[in-house]
């Protein structure tokens, strides 16, 4: 088989088995029947042959005896024989004897039974004459016209038959007058000779003639002449039993011998004599044709089986090939491989249809699997999106919650600060008043001493300090209403800087956007925020430095205010906390400066961001939404100043990614620590990247 | 300061914090004012009626009344007096407006600069005398 299957499926063998069964079984059955029939016919034929052989022999035997009987009859009816004298009769008979040497003895009896002539080759010159008056051959031949019988062994050797015929005188006057009897002893050796000629070989292929019955049989002739001369000469009893007990005149069949072998025997009765002619041949020889035929057929059958087997193998392989291909394809499908399916020959039959259907199925499976995979991917991405949304939402909630907490905390602080502030301001006022009184009074009375004056000044200064702290706290915590108004940002800053008490060691650099950004702000609050940042910047540069204040429009709707210093920068651990209220690094400070900045930016829907580089400086970036220019006069300006605005502008897309750190951001501070405005999404890099001016 | 001025200006301080009243009074007396003190609104009004001060400095919060009520009452009684409200906390714009509408002339956030206060009082006095 040409296909290169890794292993042959069971199906092929099943096909094979059924093919063989279907094709060979009927043939086998028919063949077996035919062989049987043929064999039976052949056996029958063999038997018929044997039978006809036996019948032929039987006739021969009959003719043989009849011939000699006729010889005697002719001799007895010879004209004048009855009336002849003994001498002439003797001469006459001796001629007969010369012609027919089978006669062992010839005798003539007169009508009284007295023997008148007796002659024979073994009798001698003058044998004794006998009287046969009451002897059976004599009486029977006279009564019935002939006698044939008296089987015996002449001189205990030759099987001999006695034949007697009446001697009849035929004259004109006395018709058929019986004058005596002519008796002859006939040797039956001739029969054995004849049989011997037909069955020359010895052994079981033989023929014989028997007389008598089972108990007392007489072997008349045998194809092996020596058999006849044996004492007690006979044929096996089992054969005798078969042939002697048959009522039919002829017959035959298979006979089992005592020695275990079988022969095919046939018999026929000899007419008138009652003898049985028996022929036999070994069963092997008899059935040779049948056996050979069976062998031939078996050989043919084997060839047929062999050829059918090969053909079936081929056919089964051919039929199962597409099925196996299908199976391999199915295996591949099972493993999830949709490509490189084994080629399936499209036969124009049910298997072809099956292959076609299978291919369609695999196609649709492939499609469905693809759809499933796509659906799964979509689901996954959708899940991711959802997760992201949940995350964002959670973050928003957290932020809102933080905001709320912060607000609540601030409110609480505000309330507390208000109470505490009031309660502390009274004693502060008293201290202030008393110290002032002491100083004024002592100066007036000339009691003032330089040291006391100094200490009173310290007290007053401390009172101021304490008071300013209270101011700061109250400013941060009070729930003041925002009062936004349209402002030109550059102008606003310019004004602020012009009145700010910069120390002499600080250099101020202004870098304003020429586009003149317009903003909608609460000037007091924003001013406070910017002042806080400038103040911080100055504080970190006690030995001098640069404070740079810049504005720049970023994106379309935003402006950024940079307040940069060239101070030492803010360390990472501090940077995280700088906007936390009450967090401070100063010996004296409320820690509210930057918190205020952040609060202000929140209240303006803006955002504060910080960039710092250790040793180089810090930039605080305030992002403010640009005011719509038309809103400078539009009544909606007041609308924008709605109290308690949301910390983030509603138009701010919450999901936009935080802006990447400006290109100029230095690596000392990880980008994620920057407090970023939600917008702009892409902070301008040019000014943002600029290092603080030194 | 005002040694040559024979008639000192009468000034009433109403505050429940006695130390504050006392210290403030002492300081202002050094500056030539004649000071009266009261701890409650009721005492304050009584003292004002009795002494007829030119200037009244009152705390916004008093034990028996709000400063605004006293302010209103005093303005009703003393049309020309200088009324100064004093407070330890921030005042909202509304509060301030309310105070001014009720007749207050000035607000003071504690603690205050005493020299400034003195100057401011004299300013207000000279304005009201014009």
Task: Characterize this entry briefly.
Chain A contains 16 helices and 17 strands.
Topology:
The complex is a heterodimer of chains A (694) and B (130).
Chain A (H helix, E strand, L loop, with lengths): L9 H67 L9 H14 L3 E8 L4 E5 L16 H9 L2 E8 L3 E12 L7 E11 L1 H10 L7 E7 L4 E6 L2 H5 L7 H8 L5 E7 L5 E8 L6 E7 H4 L1 H47 L15 H96 L4 H28 L7 E4 H11 L6 E6 L6 E4 L1 H17 L5 E10 L3 E8 L6 H4 L17 H11 L3 E7 L3 E9 L10 H5 L44 H4 L6
Helix pairs in contact in A: 1-8, 8-9, 9-10, 12-14
Chain B lengths: L8 E6 L3 H13 L2 E6 L2 H11 L3 E5 L7 H11 L4 E6 L5 H9 L4 E4 L4 H16 L1
Parallel strand pairs in B: 1-2, 1-3, 3-4, 4-5
Helix pairs in contact in B: 2-3
Explain what this protein looks like in three dimensions:
- The complex is a heterodimer of chains A (694) and B (130).
- Mean pLDDT of chain A is 79; it is low at 1-6 and 630-694.
- Chain A has helices at 10-76, 86-99, 136-144, 189-198, 225-229, 237-244, 283-286, 288-334, 350-445, 450-477, 489-499, 523-539, 572-575, 593-603, 636-640, 685-688, and strands at 103-110, 115-119, 147-154, 158-169, 177-187, 206-212, 217-222, 250-256, 262-269, 276-282, 485-488, 506-511, 518-521, 545-554, 558-565, 607-613, 617-625.
- Chain A is rod-shaped and about 235 Å long.
- Helix content of chain A is 49%, strand content 18%.
- A five-stranded antiparallel sheet of chain A has the order 2-1-5-4-3, sandwiched between helices. In chain A, strands 7-6-10-9-8 form a five-stranded antiparallel sheet. Chain A has a five-stranded mixed sheet with strand order 12-14-15-17-16.
- In chain A, α12 packs antiparallel against α14.
- The longest helix of chain A has 96 residues, at 350-445.
- By secondary structure, chain B is α/β, with parallel strands linked by helices.
- Chain B has helices at residues 18-30, 41-51, 67-77, 93-101, 114-129; strands at 9-14, 33-38, 55-59, 82-87, 106-109.
- In chain B, strands 2-1-3-4-5 form a five-stranded parallel sheet, sandwiched between helices.
- The longest helix of chain B has 16 residues, at 114-129.
- Chain B starts with 8 loop residues before the first strand and ends with a helix.
- The model of chain B has no long low-confidence stretch (mean pLDDT 84).
- Chain A binds chain B through residues 418, 421-434, 436-437, 440-441, 444, 463, 467, 474, 478, 480, and chain B through 17, 19-20, 23-24, 26-27, 30, 61, 87-90, 92, 109-112, 114-115.
């Amino acid at each position: 088989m040409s296909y290169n299957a890794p292993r042959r499926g069971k199906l092929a063998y099943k096909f094979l088995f059924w093919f063989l069964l279907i094709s060979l079984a009927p043939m086998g059955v028919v063949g077996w029947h035919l062989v049987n029939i043929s064999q039976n016919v052949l056996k029958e034929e063999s038997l018929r042959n044997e039978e006809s052989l036996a019948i032929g022999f039987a006739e021969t035997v009959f003719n043989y005896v009849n011939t000699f009987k006729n010889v005697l009859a002719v001799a007895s009816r010879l004209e004048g024989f009855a009336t002849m004298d003994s001498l002439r009769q003797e001469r006459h008979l001796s001629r007969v004897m010369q012609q027919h040497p089978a006669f062992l003895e010839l005798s003539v009896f007169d009508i009284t039974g007295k023997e008148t002539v007796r002659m024979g080759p073994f009798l001698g010159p003058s044998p004794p004459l006998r009287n046969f008056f009451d002897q059976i051959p004599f009486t029977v031949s006279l009564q019935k016209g002939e006698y044939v019988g008296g089987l015996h062994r002449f001189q205990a050797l030759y099987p001999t038959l006695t034949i007697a015929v009446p001697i009849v005188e035929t004259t004109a006057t006395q018709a058929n007058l019986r004058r005596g009897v002519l008796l002859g002893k006939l040797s039956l050796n001739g029969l054995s000779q004849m049989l011997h000629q037909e069955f020359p070989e010895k052994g079981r292929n033989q023929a014989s003639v028997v007389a008598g019955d089972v108990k007392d049989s007489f072997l008349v002739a045998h194809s092996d002449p020596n058999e006849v001369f044996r004492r007690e000469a006979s044929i096996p009893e089992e054969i005798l039993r078969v042939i002697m007990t048959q009522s039919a005149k002829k017959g035959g069949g298979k006979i089992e011998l005592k020695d275990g072998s079988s022969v095919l025997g046939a018999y026929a009765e000899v007419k008138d004599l009652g003898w049985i002619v028996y022929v036999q041949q070994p069963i092997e020889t008899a059935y040779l044709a049948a056996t050979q035929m069976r062998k031939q057929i078996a050989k043919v059958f084997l060839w047929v089986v062999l050829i059918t087997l090969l053909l079936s193998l081929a056919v089964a392989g051919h039929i199962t090939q597409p099925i196996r291909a299908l199976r391999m394809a199915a295996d591949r499908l099972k493993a999830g491989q949709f490509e490189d399916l084994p080629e399936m020959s499209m036969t124009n039959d049910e298997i072809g249809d099956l292959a076609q259907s299978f291919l369609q199925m695999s196609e649709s499976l492939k499609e469905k699997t693809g759809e499933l995979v796509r659906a799964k991917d979509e689901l996954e991405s959708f899940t991711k999106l959802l997760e992201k949304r949940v995350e964002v939402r959670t973050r928003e909630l957290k932020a809102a919650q933080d905001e709320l907490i912060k607000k609540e905390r601030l409110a609480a602080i505000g309330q507390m600060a208000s109470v505490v502030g009031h309660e502390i301001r009274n004693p502060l006022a008293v201290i202030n008043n008393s110290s002032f009184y002491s100083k004024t009074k002592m100066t007036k009375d000339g009691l003032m001493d330089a040291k006391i004056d100094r200490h009173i000044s310290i007290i007053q200064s401390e009172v101021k300090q304490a008071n300013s702290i209270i101011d700061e706290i109250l400013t941060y915590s009070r729930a003041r209403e925002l009062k936004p108004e349209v402002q030109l940002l550059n102008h606003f800053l310019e004004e602020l800087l012009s009145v700010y008490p910069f120390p002499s060691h600080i250099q101020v650099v202004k870098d304003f956007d020429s586009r003149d950004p317009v903003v909608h702000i609460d000037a007091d609050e924003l001013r406070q925020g910017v002042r806080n940042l400038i103040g911080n910047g100055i504080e970190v540069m006690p030995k001098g430095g640069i404070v740079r204040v810049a504005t720049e429009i970023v994106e379309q709707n935003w402006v950024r205010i940079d307040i940069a210093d060239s101070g030492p920068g803010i360390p990472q651990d501090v940077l995280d906390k700088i906007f936390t209220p009450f967090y401070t690094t100063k010996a004296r400070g409320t820690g509210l400066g930057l918190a205020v900045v952040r609060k202000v930016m929140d209240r303006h829907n803006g955002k504060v961001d910080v960039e710092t580089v250790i040793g180089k400086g810090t930039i605080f970036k305030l992002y403010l939404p640009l005011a719509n220019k038309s809103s400078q006069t539009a009544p909606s300006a007041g609308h924008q100043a709605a109290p308690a605005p949301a910390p983030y502008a509603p138009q701010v897309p919450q999901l936009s990614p935080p802006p990447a750190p400006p290109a100029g951001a230095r690596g000392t501070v990880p980008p994620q620590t920057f407090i970023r405005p939600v917008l702009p999404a892409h902070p301008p890099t040019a000014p943002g990247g600029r290092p603080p001016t030194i | 300061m005002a040694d040559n001025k024979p008639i000192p200006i009468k000034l009433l301080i109403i505050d429940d914090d006695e130390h504050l009243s006392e210290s403030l009074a002492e300081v202002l007396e050094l500056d030539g004012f004649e000071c009266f003190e009261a701890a409650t609104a009721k005492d304050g009004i009584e003292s004002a009626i009795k002494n007829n001060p030119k200037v009244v400095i009152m705390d916004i919060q008093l034990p028996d009344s709000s400063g605004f009520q006293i302010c209103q009452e005093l303005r009703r009684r003393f049309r020309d007096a200088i009324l100064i409200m004093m407070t330890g906390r921030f005042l909202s714009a509304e509060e301030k407006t309310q105070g001014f509408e009720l007749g207050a002339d000035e607000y003071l956030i504690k603690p205050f600069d005493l020299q400034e206060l003195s100057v401011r009082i004299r300013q207000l006095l000279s304005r009201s005398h014009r």
